[in-house]
Amino acid sequence: MRTALVTGAAGFIGFHLSRLLLAEGWRVVGVDNHNDYYDPALKAAREALLLADPNYRAIRGAVEEPGLLMGIFAEERPEAVVHLAAQAGVRYSIENPRAYVQANLLGTFELLEAARAHPPRHMLLASTSSVYGANTEMPYRETDRADSQMSFYAATKKSNEAMAHSYAHLFALPVTMFRFFTVYGPWGRPDMAPYLFTSAIFDGRPIKVFNHGGMRRDFTFVSDLVRAIRLLVDAVPGTERAGEFDSLSPVAPFRVVNIGNGAPVPLLDFIAAIESAAGRKAQRQMLPMQPGDVPATWADTTLLRALSGYAPQTAVDEGVAAYVAWFRDYYGVGA
Ligand SMILES: NC(=O)c1ccc[n+]([C@@H]2O[C@H](COP(=O)([O-])OP(=O)(O)OC[C@H]3O[C@@H](n4cnc5c(N)ncnc54)[C@H](O)[C@@H]3O)[C@@H](O)[C@H]2O)c1
Fold first, then answer.
1. Does the reported pTM lie above 0.85?
2. Beta partners for 6?
3. Domain parsing of the chain, residue ranges
4. 15 CB less than 6 Å from ligand 1?
5. What is the β-pairing status of strands 80-83 and 122-128?
6. Alpha-carbon gap, residue 229 to 95, rounded angstroms
7. Beta carbon of 43 within 6 Å of any ligand 1 atom
8. Is residue 153 flagged as an active site residue?
9. Any idea where the NAD-dependent epimerase/dehydratase domain is (predicted)?
């Protein structure tokens, strides 16, 4: 039986990925500290579904706790490690940057040390499209320079990429870094726009539309995203280049890969899709751009396709309908 260690397994993406791996017959060891950055009841509900599978093991703890990951690596010897535990969110990183140092910098350091002692076949770590920061050339390519982060969140993720590269080089550890583009879908995070919009629409509250609606996001449906992750687990970086577009390091088994739909959607179209699925109109409160944010994101998915033969493509109408159906069911509203 193949064993995967998934950090942040009670989180939005970790939950979906763990479910997919379990359905394929993997043993999954999930680590999560169930912190209260958003409602821990949602994390507990996701974990309860995972625990229904006897091949799931849940470990409650913080990744930055010295020795925790080391002990788990030693005991479980996971073949694949997917590191999703992090303090996420652009806006919260202005308010509480220390949380990002703890979870993202120290947590990733402990993970790398554990992998150095007990090397898995492949380590896959979450980074973000936010690392492209001030880049304006679209779509974003992995080989583009990405040196101008606009938020401390993005800065910690860019640091994670550099930290992981050095371990990949020094200890011959195969590492893939994902740059995710705005992920949405059932069981989604309550701090993100799809939840904020949908809950306001059902409550009859106005929604806040930043940059006066002039935002575009490469929205990625979560089922597509975890399918891409799953396929990349078996695309272990070696020395072979997938093409001139490959971000493979010249000195280490390390690459970064965008996971996005490859099609930016205007925020106003995303809102219209929620209105249509909810059968209600939103009251729009138009506001300026928020600090740390970028007006648009757009993934080039050439490398993802070359490595996995796949790229996300769920259309926003379809994905949003699935999200709103889950929202009604989980929160018992809008029937
Ligand atoms: N959702 C997106 O649109 C998106 C976009 C880009 C990057 N990402 C990255 O993907 C990863 C997963 O994101 P998500 O949307 O599932 O977020 P999430 O917050 O739902 O999941 C993260 C999980 O990690 C846990 N966690 C946080 N700090 C921890 C710590 N110190 N120790 C142990 N567990 C901890 C949380 O309790 C949570 O369950 C994160 O690394 C995030 O930065 C997400």
1. yes
2. 30, 82
3. 3-181+220-259
4. no
5. parallel
6. 31
7. yes
8. yes
9. 4-235
Cα 281 to ligand 1 centre (Å): 31
Q: How far is C-alpha 314 from the chain's CA centre?
A: 17
DSSP state for residue 106 in the 8-state scheme? I
CB atoms inside a 10 Å sphere around CB 10: 26
Q: Does domain 3-181+220-259 have CATH number 3.40.50.720?
A: yes
CA nearest 7: which of 99, 111, 136, 143?
A: 111
Distance 103 CA to ligand 1 centre (A): 10
In this structure, what is the dihedral angle of CA atoms 99, 104, 107, 108, given to the nearest 10 degrees?
Answer: -170
Given the structure tokens 């950090």, which residue do they identify?
7
Q: Is the CB of 6 under 6 A from ligand 1?
A: no
How do residues 61-79 score in pLDDT, each as one tens digit? 999 999 999 999 999 999 9
Neighbouring C-alpha atoms within 13 Å toward the C-beta of 223 = 11
- Cβ-contact 216, 293 below 8 angstroms: no
Do 154 and 141 contact (CB within 8 A), yes or no? no
The pLDDT tens digits along the chain (335 residues) read 999 999 999 999 999 999 999 999 999 999 999 999 999 999 999 999 999 999 999 999 999 999 999 999 999 999 999 999 999 999 999 999 999 999 999 999 999 999 999 999 999 999 999 999 999 999 999 999 999 999 999 999 999 999 999 999 999 999 999 999 999 999 999 999 999 999 999 999 999 999 999 999 999 999 999 999 999 999 999 999 999 999 999 999 999 999 999 999 999 999 999 999 999 999 999 999 988 888 999 999 999 999 999 999 999 999 999 999 999 999 999 66
State how far the Cα of 152 lies from the Cα of 131, in Å rounded to an integer.
10
